[in-house]
Amino acid sequence: MEEAYLALGRKILTDGHLKEDRTGTGTRSIFGHQMRFDLSKGFPLLTTKRVPFGLIKSELLWFLKGDTNIRYLLQHNNHIWDEWAFERYIKSDDYNGPDMTDFGRRVLTDEVFKESYEKEHKEFCNNMLSDDDFAAKYGELGNIYGAQWRHWETKEGNFIDQLKNVIDMIKQTPDSRRLIVSAWNPEDVPSMALPPCHTMFQFYVNDGKLSCQLYQRSGDVFLGVPFNIASYALLTHLIAHETGLEVGDFVHTLGDAHLYTNHIDQMNEQLTRDIRSFPTLKLNQDKKSVFEFEMDDIVIEGYDPHPAIKAPIAV
Predict the structure, then answer these.
(1) Known binding-site residue numbers for dUMP
(2) What are the residue ranges of helices labelled H in the chain?
(3) Active-site residue among 55, 74, 197, 233?
(4) Pick from 90, 110, 140: which residue ends a domain?
């Protein structure tokens, strides 16, 4: 099944269109692509490079809690959303440190600047963890995934828990064609640190199995997509566990699937590696609800990947 992901990387390298993007980095991209993973045949955590499952767990649990402040992530040593919160902070009137403009790219080429950035970033994270007021002001990313999944606000000022509603529907009306959760709320997009890339997902029940399809408007194929595959596979497992179903397929549908131009060498390196067996997911059977799970309740066994391949994130 990992070949489906590697085939996407090859396709972009050979057929991708060179495009400018909001980060100024540049991409090679294709439009419209689909991958399918049979979750009964192993948990789709890539083996051609190490993918940090702990970060995937804490991020998904963060979404499930309806949380949109990065403090929870930092408490679990997860820094994958730091850049967006940090960028908001350095653009604020409260920041009076050295110039951090375009920090995402400057740290790659300027060692003096990198040292300065790491100092400011460390101080930012320490303040996030130790100062409640600072965390409330600068850790908040707007109404991103957790907010839309768990408390979508209506024009009347009420809140919809989309995820809980879908789980209830799977239990009560499993043949429904409306088992959908949307993260794309046009009214909230302007206030989000990063408008949702994985915009909506839908469940399908057949023969006692739960399948999930994700539509992702924009996919960073080298860094982001491996996380998305594992995250939604985990979500499918958790909901199947609560609803008493087996797992079926995870179907990943991508709109703009792209490689950043500074990820080309890394993708080529990954394509030289042999595929190994997917690991196995183990869930704490004592936990009955999706919303009860904590980090220690979710374990991967038999994961033997190739080493990680580092690449810069585009902010």
Answers:
(1) 22, 177-178, 217-220, 228, 258-260
(2) 2-15, 53-64, 71-75, 82-90, 103-109, 111-130, 132-138, 145-150, 162-172, 224-243, 264-271
(3) 197
(4) 140
Mean pLDDT estimate for the chain = 95
Whether the pLDDT of residue 67 is over 70: the answer is: yes
What is the token pair recorded at 141?
A: 């990313």
Please state whether the predicted TM-score (pTM) of the whole model is above 0.90: yes
209-232 tens-digit pLDDT: 999 999 999 999 999 999 999 999
Annotated binding residues, as ranges? 22, 177-178, 217-220, 228, 258-260, 314
149 belongs to a structural domain: no
Between 18-32, 118-132, 249-263, the lowest mean confidence (pLDDT) is in: 18-32
Residues 189 and 281 in one domain: yes
Cβ contact 284:298 at 8 Å: yes
CB contact set of 306 (below 8 Å; sequence gap of 6+): 47, 48, 49, 50, 273, 276
> What is d(CA 171, CA 191) in angstroms, rounded to the nearest whole number?
34
Q: Residue 259: name the closest of 268, 272, 249, 248 by CA.
A: 268
**DSSP-derived secondary structure for 96-134:** -SS--TTHHHHHHH-HHHHHHHHHHHHHHHHHHHH-HHH
As a whole number, mean pLDDT of residues 162-186 equals 97
pLDDT digits (tens, 9 = 90+) for 103-115: 988 887 899 999 9
122 vs 169: CA distance, rounded Å: 44
**Any idea which residue has 């509603």 for tokens?**
165
For residue 125, indicate whether it is catalytic: no
Give the single-character DSSP code of 10.
H
Res 128 pLDDT > 90: yes
Same domain, residue pair 191 and 285 = yes
**What is d(CA 41, CA 190) in angstroms, rounded to the nearest whole number?**
40
Q: Looking at the structure, do residues 56 and 200 belong to the same domain, yes or no?
A: yes
Short-list 217, 75, 84, 83, CA closest to 132: 75
Nearest to 253 by CA among 42, 62, 30: 30
